[in-house]
Amino acid sequence: MSQNKEQILKNTNAQILDEFNASVMFDKELYDQDIRASIAHSKMLYAQGILTQQDQADIERGLLQVKAEIESGQFEFKIADEDIHMAVESRLTEIIGDAGKRLHTARSRNDQVATDFRLYVKEKNITIMAQLKEIVETFVKVASQHTESLIPGMTHLQHAQPINFGYHMLAYANMFKRDFERFESSYKRNNYSPLGSAALAGTPHNIDRFASCELLGFEQPTISALDTVSDRDFALEILFNISTAMMHISRISEELILWSSYEFQFIKMSDEYATTSSIMPQKKNPDVPELLRGKTGRAFGNLMSLLTVMKGLPLAYNKDTQEDKEGVFDSVKTIEISLSILNEVIKTMKVNVQNMESACKIGHLSATDLADYLVQKQNMPFRTAYYITKSVVSKADELSKDMSELNIDEIRSAHTDIANIDEEVVEFLNLRNSMNARNSYGGTSSQQTKSQIEIFEKWLESIE
User: Fold this and answer.
1) Any catalytic annotation for residue 159?
2) What is the pTM of this model?
3) Is the domain covering 110-359 a CATH 3.30.70.380 domain?
4) Domain of life here (predicted)?
5) CATH H superfamily, domain 13-105
6) pLDDT tens digit string along 106-156?
7) Angle, alpha carbons 217-221-226 (nearest 5°)
8) Phi, psi of 351 (to 5 degrees)
9) What ranges do the domains of the chain cover?
10) Which one is catalytic: 185, 261, 270, 277?
11) Of 23-27, 44-48, 83-87, 142-146, which range is least confident?
């Protein structure tokens, strides 16, 4: 190989290695957290007599200038700086001179990145919680408009029992409420400051971790420096919480897709969220719910990726954890846009109450009501009542009717054991009566649905 080619190859390999090793092109997302943490660190160092007042003032001024340059697009991110921490520090030193080099006293990039990343995750917990609260409000609002609107309640995607559409909406409100509570719990559990842990064992400098902790809005400093610099549980938790919320988004998206099909026609989505086929002008595709459903996979993948990174790491810090951020950034952006769009889809959809009620007359949804009636009013064993009900179902099929449409004579003719059954049984088979009969706590009756709405409204008020 010629000397020229050998040099080119070496230069190429060096460039590839620099790009492979550097994280600045993605962890620049943390610039704001890095600068705020550095300002807090400098204030603590000054309070402890480690920095002079002038040095601290210069550092803070310089850092704010760096922030302004980044936000205006003037800042040049260089692979040679390796990460956001060195990028900021290098530019700071260019601006203020040697004082910039004193900023890193009593800290390591290990606790620096842990602090920045925790701040980011902590703050995203708050913004995602606000979005979850908003979508719960939307589901509750839709529910309050449909406490009387019948829809087939399903198991195994088969018609089962009549419920009201508001009740169905509140099932999703419950899911997203649990998501809110997971983020809330995670925020509290991880609201501890890593700053001052240094490389892994603390620092000999006379620092005050409680002071920097307070300046950054953390509850307390972390207890163990050794654990702190390698801990990424907070990142795993937000990825898990996002994955669970995305799973819930995927479930409602699946129902929106089904409900908007010709087979169901329960809802009509706004044209903003459903697009016409490129070659079939009569057809609208539920593109947005399909994308919401599809994006769930990337959130799950980001969670599994970080779990895999962390599973074999010894204490303390390892370079592997450079792979902890991109997945979190991606999942955060995914959940934020997904919640925003889903909220608008639910707000703007039109509910076809008539089609939903007509669908309730398919599948004999009040069959269980007849069995329950025979147990309660005729003192029959449930198994006996079950088989008599099957006979009535067969009679309805024979007459091409739904059970709720049978008259008393047709019901009596279905089985000898009910030849003299009281005429009131007809009312028990009425679909709306069937729905309202389920008045137990948590049930589907209009009364219970309204009670559940009140519970949600009180909860929403409590977190304002």
Assistant:
1) no
2) 0.93
3) no
4) Bacteria
5) Fumarase/aspartase (N-terminal domain) (1.10.275.10)
6) 999 999 999 999 999 999 999 999 999 999 999 999 999 999 999 999 999
7) 140
8) -95, 125
9) 13-105, 110-359, 362-462
10) 277
11) 23-27
